[in-house]
Design brief:
Blueprint: H1 19-22, E1 28-32, E2 35-38, E3 43-46, H2 49-52, H3 61-73, H4 86-98, E4 105-109, H5 112-129, E5 137-141, H6 150-155, H7 159-164, E6 172-175, H8 190-208, E7 213-218, H9 234-245, E8 248-252, H10 266-269, E9 276-279, E10 291-295, H11 297-310, H12 323-338, H13 341-357, E11 365-371, E12 374-379, H14 402-413, E13 416-417, E14 419-421, E15 424-427, H15 435-458
Parallel strand pairs: 3-13, 5-6, 5-7, 7-8, 8-9
Antiparallel strand pairs: 1-2, 2-3, 4-10, 9-10, 11-12, 12-15, 14-15
Helix pairs in contact: 3-12, 4-12, 5-11, 8-9, 13-15, 14-15
Bound molecules: pyridoxal-5'-phosphate (PLP).
C-alpha cells in the first residue's frame, strides 16, 4: 500500500526536503541483477551501482545464504574486550593477505565514514604514542567526500557542506583536486599542473608548521568531484612530499576498492603506496554495512605500544566485526575468486569504454573520461549547442548546470540511473553487468540524453 508521501516523516538525505512535500521520491521495492524495480514495477539499470556500492548487483543468492547461515550460527557478537568471532579473524587474515600494505592490521567498522573517522583517530593515537601530540592536522582536497559524520564531513572538501554545517573543524587543511584537465590554468600542460599542485601541497604542510600534519587523505580517483583520473605523476610526487614531511598517506578506497579499477585495490592499479587504506561498500557488495581501516606495521606497532601502556586501545564499536557482515564479506571474496570476477571485469572494460567514448560526439557531452570499470561524461553545463567547450570545473565541484538537471530528470523516464555530480555524469555499473546489459544501458542513456536536449530546447 502506497502512503501519501507528503505526510511521511522520513527524512531523505542529499534531497530538497521541501520537494519531498509535493513530489513522491523514487521508491525502489526490488532488485534483480543490475536492475532495481520501483513500486510501480518499472525497472532501472543502476549505472552507478547505488552510491557505487552494489558491485555484485541486487540479487546474489550466495550473499543472502551466507548471511542466513551466519544468522543461524551466531547473529551478533561484538569484537572488543579481548573477544571476537571466528569469521572476523578469518576475514582479517584474508584482507591483510590481499591488501598492498606491509604487515597490515585491520580494524572493522560499519560504514565508510566510520572507517575514515577511525583512520584519523588512529593517526592521532600513533602520534601521541610517538611523543608528537601536535601532529594532528589532516590534509584533504577540495571537492572530496569522505563521509557524513561530523569529523568526516569536515574532512571532505565540499564548500557548500562546510557552509551548511559550520565546518571545517580545527586541524583540517585543503589543497586542490587533481582534476585534469578541468582544473588547469591557462597555458598549463599536465606537468605544470601537477607541479603547481605539488607546490601547493608542500606550501600547505610548511605553513601548517613543522611536525603538525598527521595525514593526507585522498581517493585514488575522486568520484564526488566527477571522476577525473589524475595525471600519472601526481601520486608519486605527492608521496615524495608526504614521505619527506613524515605525513601518512590515507588512501580512501571506499569506492575505488574491490574491483572498480580492475584490481582488487586501486592502490595496485595505480601503484600507490599508502600507509592506511579504508574500504567499505564493495566489501559486502553493500548487502551488510561493513567497513575497514587497514594500517601498516609501523602504525600498528605504535597502537600496540600505546594500548599496552594505557591498558587498552580506547576504541571499539558494537558492530565492529559483526559476524553476519564478516560472513558476507568473506563470501564476496570467495565470489571474486570463484567467478574470476576481476578477469571478467577487465574483459568487459573495453566495451564499457567504447560505448562511453562514442558519446564524445554527443551535443550535450564536452568530454569523456575513463579509468577501470568506470567513466564520466563531462556535460556541457548550461549549454546545449554542438561544439560547446568544456566548462571550467576549477578546484572542486561546480554546481549542477542545466544539462545535468535535465538529465537527472530524463534518466528516470528512461530507466537508467547515473550519478550526476556538478557537470559530470558518472557511470560505474555493478561489476557483474553483462555485455548485453551494457548495450541496454547505453540505449537507455542515449534516449535520456535525447530527451534532455528536447527539454532544454523547449525552454
Ligand atoms: N569515502 C568515500 C570516497 C565515499 O564516497 C563515501 C560515501 O559515498 C564515504 C567515504 C562514506 O561512506 P559511507 O556512506 O558508507 O559512510
Amino acid at each position: 500500500m502506497i502512503s501519501n508521501f507528503s505526510q511521511s516523516p522520513l527524512v531523505i538525505g542529499f534531497s530538497n526536503l521541501r520537494r519531498l512535500r509535493s513530489e513522491r521520491p523514487l521508491v525502489i521495492t526490488k532488485g534483480r541483477g543490475v536492475f532495481v524495480i520501483d513500486e510501480n514495477g518499472r525497472d532501472y539499470i543502476e549505472a552507478s551501482s547505488s552510491f557505487y556500492c552494489a558491485a555484485l548487483g541486487y540479487s546474489d543468492e550466495r550473499l543472502m545464504h551466507a548471511a542466513m547461515r551466519q544468522m543461524h550460527e551466531l547473529p551478533i557478537y561484538p569484537t572488543g574486550l579481548h573477544r571476537t568471532v571466528d569469521v572476523a579473524l578469518e576475514l582479517a587474515d584474508k584482507i591483510t593477505s590481499l591488501v598492498p600494505i606491509e604487515d597490515a592490521h585491520v580494524l572493522f567498522s560499519s560504514t565508510g565514514s566510520e572507517a575514515n573517522d577511525v583512520a584519523i583517530k588512529l593517526m592521532r593515537y600513533r602520534n601521541v604514542a610517538r611523543g608528537e601530540p601536535r601532529r594532528r592536522k589532516v590534509i584533504s582536497r577540495w571537492g572530496s567526500y569522505h563521509g557524513g559524520t561530523i569529523a568526516t564531513a569536515a574532512l571532505g572538501g565540499g564548500r557548500s557542506v562546510h557552509d551548511a554545517f559550520a565546518l571545517p573543524m580545527d586541524d583540517y587543511l585543503f589543497v586542490s583536486q587533481p582534476s585534469w584537465p578541468a582544473g588547469r590554468r591557462e597555458q598549463e600542460n599536465a606537468a605544470d599542473f601537477v607541479g603547481r599542485l605539488i607546490e601547493e601541497l608542500e606550501d600547505t604542510i610548511v605553513a601548517a608548521g613543522p611536525g603538525s600534519v598527521a595525514g593526507f587523505v585522498a581517493e585514488p580517483i575522486s568520484f564526488s568531484c566527477g571522476f577525473f583520473p589524475p595525471p600519472a605523476d601526481y601520486f608519486p610526487r605527492v608521496e615524495e612530499v608526504l614521505d619527506r614531511h613524515g605525513v601518512l598517506f590515507v588512501d580512501d578506497e571506499v569506492i575505488c576498492g574491490y574491483g572498480r579499477t580492475g584490481a582488487l585495490f586501486a592502490a595496485e592499479s595505480m601503484s600507490l603506496n599508502p600507509d592506511i587504506i579504508t574500504i567499505a561498500k564493495g566489501m559486502t557488495g553493500a548487502y551488510f554495512p561493513v567497513s575497514a581501516t587497514v594500517v601498516n606495521g609501523e602504525v600498528y606497532d605504535w597502537l600496540e605500544e600505546a594500548s599496552d601502556r594505557d591498558g587498552s586501545l580506547a576504541h571499539a564499536a558494537t558492530y565492529s566485526g559483526h559476524p553476519v557482515g564478516m560472513a558476507v564479506a568473506l563470501e564476496v571474496l570467495r565470489i571474486f575468486e570463484e567467478d574470476r570476477l576481476l578477469d571478467r571485469v577487465r574483459a568487459r572494460t573495453p566495451l564499457l569504454h567504447r560505448r562511453l567514448l562514442e558519446l564524445s560526439d554527443h551535443p550535450l557531452v564536452a568530454d569523456v573520461r575513463l579509468f577501470g570499470f568506470a567513466g564520466a561524461l563531462q556535460l556541457t553545463g548550461a549549454r546545449v549547442k554542438p561544439g560547446a567547450t568544456q566548462p571550467p570545473v576549477g578546484a572542486g565541484v561546480t554546481a549542477m548546470g542545466e544539462v545535468g538537471k535535465a538529465l537527472s530528470r530524463t534518466m528516470i523516464d528512461h530507466g537508467v540511473l547515473v550519478r550526476v555530480t556538478g557537470d559530470s555524469a558518472v557511470i560505474a555499473p555493478p561489476l557483474i553487468i553483462t555485455d548485453a546489459e551494457i548495450e541496454e544501458l547505453f540505449v537507455r542513456l542515449r534516449r535520456a540524453l535525447a530527451d534532455a536536449i528536447a527539454e532544454l530546447s523547449a525552454h
